[in-house]
Design goal:
Layout: H1 3-17, E1 35-41, E2 44-49, H2 56-71, E3 78-83, E4 99-105, H3 112-123, E5 129-133, H4 141-145, E6 162-164, E7 167-171, H5 172-175, H6 185-198, E8 206-210, H7 217-225, E9 230-235, H8 239-254, E10 259-264, E11 268-270, E12 277-279, E13 293-296, H9 314-330, E14 340-341, H10 347-360, E15 366-371, H11 378-386, E16 396-402, E17 405-411
Parallel strand pairs: 2-3, 4-8, 4-9, 5-7, 5-8, 9-10, 10-13, 14-15
Antiparallel strand pairs: 1-2, 6-7, 11-12, 15-17, 16-17
Helix pairs in contact: 3-9
This protein binds adenosine-5'-triphosphate.
Adenosine-5'-triphosphate binds next to α3.
Length: about 425
């Protein structure tokens, strides 16, 4: 066969393949990035694909459609679809996200996974969003989004998320088939940590994390290991749920985890027959919440469906806007005018700046320091400057205002 005839066969095969669509998005298999290469020689065609972002049913569907399309091409004697294993090189790690928002709850069953999934889909309207389901006790995200495994690994052995409408999703639930016991007991945290740290993401604007319910070790260590912008805590308006939520909010703050706000779920029920809204719980216990209410969501069948990235009911779109606004303001540290700001300075310049300001102050004056590192070690230095033991500084309060900013407030002894 001549070179020209070979090129023509490749062209004809590619033209037919272009008619095969991604069943989950209105894209050709080329636009969806499923076709890596087409080799057509002497009537034998090999289509090299990367279908790792698809669940197995969808992937089989696409392969079948490709085989049928190429089989019909004039001059094709045999056709073969091969899967290429992608590299993690063009993927991102968890540190690459601009923002990480975790969704937590004091107890199970209040709608945490529903909120996390719809929130990720709401944020996906304007951002490149990924969703990580860390709920080892009830990984519901795959069911909510109607995605399934198996999870493939890259050439480097890193787990590759499942992709749905441009959003990457990884869940302990997608891994369960292979290793159900790994998610229980002492091994759970290590296994979760591995998955969290090694997943090779394609998205890099916002990562939404669905945490396990409660404030156990897995929750706290996960929140401390990655620079989360903050946690959204989901509650129902029932007084016991609200008081558990208040304690959870307090615990997060005590552990330097910023709280963006709360979502009050199942706040009311709108009657299907008359359209009348009814409160589901009689007590108005929200006054006990020491955190802004980002959204009050109704109990509605609409929120029991399968959300699509970028296309959510209005109440969830509003929640997405409230979370975006909260992330932006959480990044701003409220610094009093007289504070010493040593962020971004060299170690020597940091010391000089602290010394200059501190030695100007008198006993009883307030000293406020803003730093991009934990300022606790500054204590002994201040002690030397004040010629007083560190214990003489009362109060000596350090808080992590954002993942990258700490504020120290103390008084000169
Ligand atoms: N606002 C709502 N309207 C209607 N149904 C809801 C709403 N929120 C949650 N649900 C339903 O309540 C059930 C529990 O929700 P979900 O799984 O999100 O809770 P959860 O807090 O994540 O629970 P767990 O921690 O046990 O996994 C689901 O069947 C969900 O569809």
């Amino acid at each position: 066969m001549t070179e020209n005839a070979r090129t023509t066969l490749t062209d004809r095969v590619e033209a037919q393949l272009r008619k095969v669509r991604d069943p989950k998005a209105d894209l050709s298999v080329f636009e969806a990035g499923f076709v890596e290469n087409v080799v057509a020689e002497d009537g034998e065609v090999t289509v090299e694909t990367d279908l790792t972002s698809l669940d197995s049913d969808t992937s089989n569907q696409v392969i079948e459609a490709m085989l049928r399309a190429v089989d019909d091409v004039d001059g094709v004697e045999s056709v073969h679809v091969e899967s290429a294993t992608p590299s993690s090189e063009d993927r991102e790690s968890v540190e690459s996200f601009d923002h990480i928002v975790a969704v937590a709850s004091a107890k199970g069953g209040v709608g945490k996974s529903t909120t996390a999934t719809y929130l990720a889909c709401a944020l996906a309207a304007d951002n490149d969003v990924a969703l990580f389901d860390a709920d080892i006790h009830g990984p519901n995200v795959p069911g909510l989004l109607d995605v399934s495994g198996p999870v493939h690994s890259s050439d480097e052995g890193d787990p590759l998320p499942i992709r749905t409408d441009g959003m990457d999703v990884m869940s302990v639930g997608l891994m369960e088939d292979g290793a159900p016991l790994a998610w229980r007991g002492a091994m759970a945290h290590d296994a979760l940590d591995d998955l969290f740290t090694n997943t090779a993401w394609r998205n890099d604007d916002v990562l939404v994390v669905d945490l396990p319910p409660g404030t156990g070790d897995v929750v706290l260590t996960t929140l401390q290991e990655v620079p989360v912008d903050g946690v959204v805590v989901v509650t129902t308006p029932f007084h016991a749920s609200v008081s558990d939520t208040s304690r959870t909010v307090e615990l997060f703050r005590d552990n330097d985890v910023p709280v963006l706000g709360t979502v009050v779920n199942m706040a009311e029920y709108v009657c299907d027959c008359c359209g009348e809204p009814n409160d589901l719980f009689e007590d108005d216990a929200l006054g006990d919440l020491d955190a802004p209410v980002l959204a009050e969501l109704p109990f509605t069948h609409e929120l029991q469906g399968t959300p699509a990235p970028g296309d959510v009911p209005e109440a969830m779109a509003d929640l997405g806007d409230a979370v975006t606004e909260s992330i932006e303001t959480a990044g701003e540290v409220a610094v009093p005018d007289h504070a010493v700001d040593i962020r971004g300075l060299s170690p020597e310049a940091r010391k000089d700046r602290v010394r200059e300001t501190f030695t100007e102050l008198d006993s009883g004056d307030e000293f406020v320091l803003v730093s991009d590192r934990d300022p606790n070690p500054v204590g002994p230095f201040l002690g030397r400057l004040a010629e007083a033991p560190r214990e003489a500084f009362d109060p000596f309060e350090v808080r992590r205002a954002t993942p990258d900013d700490w504020v120290l407030e103390t008084v000169v002894p």
